Amino acid sequence: MSARAHSRTAAAIVLTAAVTAGAALLTGCGPTAANAAAPTSAAPSGVSSGLPSAVPSGVPSTKSGAPSATPSTTPRSTPSASTPSPSAPARNGTANSRLTISNGTSRVLMNGTSVDFGTVVRDLAWSPNGSKAAFIDGAGNLDTANPDGSGRVVVAKAPSGQAWSHPTWQVTAVDPVNHVPVKNNIFFAASQGGVSRLEKVLATAVGGTPEALELVQDDGEENPAVLPLVGNSWPNGGGTIGSAVYANTNGNVYIRDENLRQSGAMVTQGSQPALAPDDESVVFVRSVGGHDHIFRGSFDHTAKDLTPHATTDYTEPAWSPDGKTLAVRTPNGVATLPADGSAAPTVVSTFPGLPAYRG
After folding, report:
1. For residue 138, what is the domain's CATH number?
2. Is the Cβ–Cβ distance between 51 and 91 less than 8 Å?
3. Residues 6 or more apart whose Cβ sits within 8 Å of residue 21
4. Domain total for the chain?
5. Could you tell me the pTM of the whole model?
6. What are the pLDDT digits (tens) for 107-125?
7. Are β-strands 153-156 and 142-145 bridged in parallel, bridged antiparallel, or unpaired?
8. Containing H/E element for 14?
9. Edge-to-edge strands of the sheet including 195-202?
10. Contacts of 285 (CB under 8 A, 6+ apart)
11. What domain range includes position 92?
12. Which one of 3, 63, 133, 143 is least enclosed by Cβ atoms within 10 Å?
């Protein structure tokens, strides 16, 4: 049975179960009061009308061959506490929406405000219901925090010589019929000596020890190939059954299913993948005609260019919770577009950074 067919068969069971993933499964839309376990270190927080002052470096272009899977690089400086005019253009795009923008400083744009997390925030990702943020902090460790920056916990500390990047959540409901326990994990990429691998750790851990993420080829694929265990990066989870997609330095995107059993397969050529909330399609970046385009692919290996008339680079796509909108990074800020490609991207914030949506 293919990875996609297997997931669809089990999805009906999982969708009927209550999600009971503990502390990471609280609800919320805007920055909320602290409601998590006490952080392992002091983490000042605050919400202001100010905006991050540091401007991140641009996303490396991938104009020849398959795009690379290199995570975004952003400055580590902490911005000043200055308060620009409320009409500052960088505020647009996040007010009255679930869109957030981070740029590698301590401040994250959300809901028309700038939230201070008290540490560098890199590669920000939200739990499925938006109650928790996961990110790489200024020391290179994996942290979680509440949306207002409080309750910060160091989930795992990166060993010396390792660089961690791009955390993503795996949150699923318990399936008592098939004896599948609730899952509440964080996947991320760990690179050492130029070699990148995928790892996972319990999302509620404090100073936890990550382990290698299991990657097993779907035994139902025709002419199956061995899945690469190194060169993997940019994991991104979605849906309700624990699936994730990731990129490899060989220029391919892979799907990893984990429901009744773990299975995986190559999906398409590209980089920086993001799995749809319904677990049925993936968007990714591919170089076309000198620019990075956003494609949407299905698991039958077909793909549609959502930005066929691109005159700039579109990278780092993120799905809205309802699956109708994509946010993408551009050299001039963050743009959004319909997930079906029915309209061209529109810049909604002139503040450049990594887009992400809260659930």
Report:
1. 2.120.10.30
2. yes
3. 171, 172, 173, 182, 183, 184, 203
4. 1
5. 0.77
6. 999 998 999 999 999 999 9
7. antiparallel
8. helix 3-15
9. 163-172, 183-192, 195-202, 211-212
10. 62, 67, 270, 271, 272, 292, 293, 294, 295, 314, 315, 316, 317
11. 3-357
12. 63
